[in-house]
Write a structure and sequence with these properties.
Helix content: 25-40%
Number of strands: 9
Strand order of the largest sheet: 4-3-2-1-7-6-5
Shape: globular
Oligomer: single chain
Radius of gyration: 24 Å
Strand content: 15-25%
Number of helices: 12
Length: about 425
């Protein structure tokens, strides 16, 4: 195995195209020919990779590349598909090789489980798990009409939580699909809007005329739009939607600002969340994206999901298909499972609490984002089960997670379990 730390850029070409700009990364070239590109984050998941059967060749850089500092170029080509991973190396900081010998393999003591969405006859390949003692052992199969149920734990969470602010009241009304309660919240909503049309968590007082939140406003637009697909009575009335949309558009365009404290730089993430909410109503022209820097590999997962949704809805984004494929690849690279529980390799960095985002919300919103995508069809059952696996005592951790989780599972059930 060869380990190289280098300043490099990486391009994947073939069935999809993806680009990693110049940065310092770890390159792992294994004895089976595979190459993995790692950053100093993301747990065990590489940023990009080429799996065997493949071959690596070292090439001289082209004149133009050499003129900007490229010293050598690695090309890893898949023998069957012809896909290529091209690494342009600018500077090698460390280079070492080791013979690891023959690995004895992982010895497991436990259970492997999987969920399959069954439609008609289903054939499953079943075999022993590698390196697991075969005796004692067995196979259990359970069939149930619905993966999702009435979600009593989530209902109990909403019914007993002491709701005070606008986000909590909205999450409860929409999360419970309670049209009467939502009407009460919606009727009071004008008292929460500032002079720019953005919503505040509490009704503004005198002197607070321009302290509405772009984050909360985007949440109101997105959550009620998603819920309205299940029950039109949960839609946001036009008289309330219009000022929120105008305020978010002004925020994205820089005509108004909301300079609030946050533990990380978040302006691009907030703008992308606003554009995603606007895109649900056909109010997000591609020009709005000119105010953000597009870097999916460096974004928290909730922003990659927002970006994925924007690309699905806004048809005139430059290089749309390529960028959509890249966003899907980034999301897949971050997925993992602990048993049946869905987790993300970036989980520790995804808890953006001040934007009401966390791993539970990401799991729910990912399931919502890909339900209509044929490329994710085979993943949907496991994504739904993995979302349920994140619950504790029948509910998720936050009000927003319970709203998104309930919507995701109800839409999944309506589509696949009717």
């Amino acid at each position: 195995m060869r380990l190289v730390i280098a300043r490099c850029s990486v391009d994947y070409t073939g069935r999809l195209n993806a680009h990693l700009p110049l940065a310092t990364r770890l390159l792992v070239h294994k004895g089976d020919g595979s190459l993995l590109v790692h950053s100093d984050g993301g747990s065990y998941k590489p940023l990009n990779w080429m799996s065997p059967p493949c071959t690596l060749t070292v090439e001289e850089p082209e004149e133009e590349a050499a003129s900007v500092g490229v010293t050598e170029q690695w090309r890893v080509t898949h023998k069957k598909t012809g896909d290529a991973l091209v690494v342009k190396i600018y500077e090698v900081l460390h280079d070492t090789s080791h013979d690891l010998g023959v690995d004895p393999g992982l010895i497991k003591d436990g259970v492997e489980a999987d969920h399959v969405l069954v439609g008609g006859q289903e054939l499953l390949d079943v075999g022993t798990i590698f390196n697991v003692t075969q005796d004692p052992g067995g196979l259990s199969v359970a069939v149930q009409p619905k993966l999702t149920g009435a979600l009593p734990g989530m209902r109990r969470y909403f019914e007993t939580y002491p709701f005070v602010c606008l986000e909590q009241k909205t999450s409860k009304a929409v999360g419970l699909k309670d049209a009467t309660l939502w009407t009460t919240v919606a009727n009071a909503l004008p008292t929460y809007l500032d002079s720019d049309g953005l919503a505040s968590y509490f009704p503004p007082r005198d002197g607070d005329a321009q302290k509405g939140s772009d984050v909360l406003s985007a949440y109101l637009l997105a959550a009620t739009d998603e819920a309205a697909g299940l029950n039109p009575a949960l839609a946001l009335p036009d008289a309330l939607r219009d000022p929120l949309a105008r305020g978010l558009t002004a925020f994205v365009e820089g005509r108004i600002s909301r300079d609030v404290w946050s533990p990380r730089k978040d302006l691009d993430m907030r703008k992308i969340a606003a554009i995603e909410a606007l895109s649900r109503y056909g109010l997000a022209p591609a020009r709005l994206l000119g105010s953000v820097s597009v870097a999916p590999n460096q974004w928290p997962t909730h922003t990659v999901i927002d970006w994925f949704n924007i690309l699905r809805r806004v048809k005139d984004v430059p290089q749309r298909e390529q960028r959509l494929a890249e966003a899907g690849q980034v999301l897949r690279a971050r997925l993992s499972y602990q048993g049946s529980k869905l987790v993300f390799s970036t989980e520790a960095d995804d808890a953006w609490w001040w934007m009401m985002q966390n791993g539970d919300v990401n799991a729910a919103r990912l399931l919502l984002a890909v339900q209509d995508d044929p490329a994710w069809k085979d993943d949907l059952g496991r994504l739904a089960a993995g979302l349920i696996g994140r619950q504790q005592n029948g509910a998720w951790h936050t009000t927003t997670a319970n709203l998104w989780g309930g919507l995701a599972l109800e839409k999944f059930s309506a589509r696949f379990e009717a």
